[in-house]
Specification:
alpha+beta, conserved putative lor/sdh protein from methanococcus maripaludis s2 fold, 4 domains, 10-stranded mixed sheet, 6-stranded antiparallel barrel, 4 helices, about 25% helix, rod-shaped
Length: about 425
């Protein structure tokens, strides 16, 4: 085997040095590395803070609110909220006294009626005929009475003549006895005629009452809020086929819109929070931005065993045309107004004064922001993304809020339902930010 090798001298002859090439810069990589390290060192604190913030627990916060007392010393704090429906204090399903076909209706929905005003009539041609017959019978009885009186007077005069003749011995005893009997019969006929007149007048009154019963009158001043019948329908005091049992013979529902109230229900556990004449705020579902003043009128004397609730009525003091029966309404019961200095017991938590006599504002926070530890109440306050645990002194509870006497100032953000992983002065992320 023969190996042919190229000459090394030929390879070396091809090597050349390029005198025009740019010189190599070995410091560039080091400069780039130095810049990168500098940038990393500069961005490290910011990056670390960003990462720490992103890893911080996310929390929901609420602002502490302030309620300033009124001049009368009341803070108007809500103690209970209930929902119900607007009803008229005086409302009636007006029905008929006698059955028959409706001949005339004098109302529509929204018609204002006065007490005693005829709003409907039942057909009464037969009753009118009976009334006319009864009145004719009275006239006839009066005529018979006149005849009876005339006959009686004549018989009395004849009796007097017979008695005088008897004294003179001209007449007989039989004639005198006959005159006395005739006078007695005439007197009895007069009494019978009087009784007939009284009976006929009584029948007139019966017919008049029957005729009056065909008129349906308004029981009080009010407004027709529901029309339940039309002309030509047959109605009955006990209802007819197709008519709801509760309506009976009702043809209209009349309500006094001058006295409207909210019919609501309160849990048995909350009834103790209500006091007589308690003030309240009423809001209609249809007009949430227009509250109305209310006052507790009545707490019903019995409860519903099945539902464990008690019915309550709240009068609407400044109702206007916007308030209509059967509207859905919410009632916020508020603590009773009390003059400054007269609070006692639990009311002292609502009305507080400084040594100078100036009333302090009341601060409220959600109940869900309060935590208990070692018998003390605390809240977590968020400031510049940092959570701080702060002890507080609590006061009276108001629905889903609680009064804070010390530890929180109005406007501070407190954490709702604080997670157990929170650390004092640790970073947190606020939802929505």
């Amino acid at each position: 085997m023969t190996i042919h090798a190229e000459s090394p001298a030929g390879d070396l002859a091809r090597l050349r040095i390029d005198r025009n090439a740019a010189p190599r810069r070995r410091w560039v990589p080091w400069a780039v590395a130095l810049v990168v390290c500098g940038a990393a060192a500069a961005l490290y604190p910011t990056t670390r803070a960003y990462v720490a913030k992103r890893q911080a627990p996310e929390v929901e916060v609420a602002r502490a609110t302030q309620v300033a007392p009124t001049a009368a010393g009341s803070t108007e704090l809500p103690v209970l909220v209930a929902t119900g429906y607007v009803v008229a204090r005086h409302s009636s399903d007006v029905g008929v006294k006698v059955g028959g076909r409706i001949a005339r209706l004098r109302f529509e929905e929204g018609t204002r009626v006065r007490k005693g005003e005829v709003i409907a009539e039942i057909e009464h041609a037969d009753i009118s005929a009976q009334l006319e017959a009864a009145r004719r019978a009275v006239v006839e009885s009066e005529a018979l009475l006149a005849q009876s009186v005339a006959a009686r007077d004549e018989d009395i005069r004849n009796l007097e003549r017979q008695r005088q003749l008897m004294k003179d011995g001209i007449t007989t005893t039989a004639a005198l006895t006959g005159a006395e009997a005739a006078a007695a019969v005439s007197a009895a006929r007069v009494k019978s005629a009087d009784a007939a007149i009284a009976s006929a007048k009584a029948r007139v009154r019966v017919a008049e009452e029957a005729l009056e019963n065909t008129n349906v009158r308004a029981p009080f001043d009010g407004v027709v809020i529901k029309k339940r019948a039309e002309v030509g329908e047959t109605v009955s005091p006990f209802g007819v086929a197709g008519q709801a049992t509760r309506e009976g013979g009702a043809i209209a529902t009349i309500a006094d819109l001058g006295e409207l109230e909210v019919q609501t229900e309160v849990s048995e556990n909350s009834v103790a929070k209500l006091t007589p004449e308690m003030s309240a705020e009423v809001k209609l579902q249809a007009y949430q931005d227009q509250p109305f003043r209310g006052r507790l009128r009545q707490v019903f004397p019995s409860a519903d065993r099945a539902k464990s609730i008690v019915e309550v009525r709240v009068s609407i003091l400044d109702a206007n045309a916007l308030v209509k029966p059967e509207m859905t309404a919410s009632v916020t019961f508020q603590e009773r107004r009390a003059p400054a200095g007269s609070a006692s017991g639990g009311d002292q938590a609502a009305v507080r004064s400084t040594s100078g006599g100036n009333q302090l504002p009341i601060v409220l926070i959600p109940k869900r922001a309060v935590t208990e530890s070692a018998g003390r109440s605390h809240v977590w306050v968020v400031n510049a993304g940092t959570a701080m645990r702060r002890p507080v002194t609590l006061g009276a509870e108001r629905i889903d809020q609680v009064e804070v006497r010390t530890g929180v100032v109005p406007g501070e953000a407190v954490i709702i339902n604080p997670p157990p992983t929170l650390a004092d002065r640790g970073l947190v992320r606020v939802k929505g930010t």
